[in-house]
Amino acid sequence: MTLSDIANSRLHSQQIAGTKLKTPKEVLACMGAMQAQDYQMAKWAIGVRLPGSTDKLIETAIDKGEIIRTHLLRPTWHLVSADDIYWMLELTAPHIRSAMKAFAKDLGLTDKVVLRCLKIIEKALSDGKHLTREELMGMLNKAKISTESFRSTHIMFHAEINGIVCNGARNGKNNTYALLAERAPKKKTFAREEALAMLAQRYFSSHGPATISDFRWWSGLPANDARAALEMVKSKFISEKIGEEIYWFSDSFPISKNDKSSVYLLPAFDEFLISYKDRSASFPHGNHKMAFTSNGIFRPVIVIDGHVTGIWKRTIKNEKVSIETELFRKHSKVEITAINKSAAGFATFLNKKAEMTKTSIS
Hints:
The protein is α+β, with helices and mostly antiparallel strands.
């Protein structure tokens, strides 16, 4: 197995190539969780794994609570199936809370203050109410609780990791919060060891070939927990050593598959890159600094046969979406045609027409 094999195989395990999934909820159930701080791009991350889907279809699934957007795994937004939210949150919230403890202290958010905030927020959202952050912060301000200097962000963060709130239905262009217990009334939890095994099973099935370091990065688990989780499920996977790293993967997809014109326009922060600590398999010629920055900004990328060959950005104008590309190398006419076809697919997802405005080579 080569690094190119790894990159190509991840297209299959991540359901980007050859997917048989039918609903947004099935995508999340397969992937375990998907990073989602960029809300619009997060919907396309599902869409690229669900051929024929639309932005509206996925937003409806989120609005209905079939899939949940909240802080999970690491201190950032993720999408997760409503069926998995409780056991995954129970497993990962303690280390997220620990990682953010110093920030809370600096902001004066003591346990007493946080508890008071949570009680006010829970009461405000009861009986099916969906409110924006601004509306909730207004209520806290009335109770003489300061929400300035990032306190509002951290207050809602604590409300999420404590299982009080999650995303509500969109109110126009505004995100809202709702009570998690009302959005996902069926609470499914497991013993800690079983939850660890389930998380490792989901990750290596949907993200392999991957290493233990990759899993630890994605899950946010402490090193001992990550190793214990893999140990419990490794008999279900195949492993291969490349250099000093051992890669684990399922045998349910081919190690190497040459997909003719395998071209994808993947969104910012897509799992195809962000879910691995070592992303070199998708950058055989370097250029990774063009795709993601040292401070954690991941740009939308063009992927050909598992390799990142450029970046793209979109500008929505009424009924059109303009696509601008920046390529890392010269592309053949066949590749350019395939990129344009993928751009058209993205436009269709948004119920708009694609307009290729500019192509440059860096």
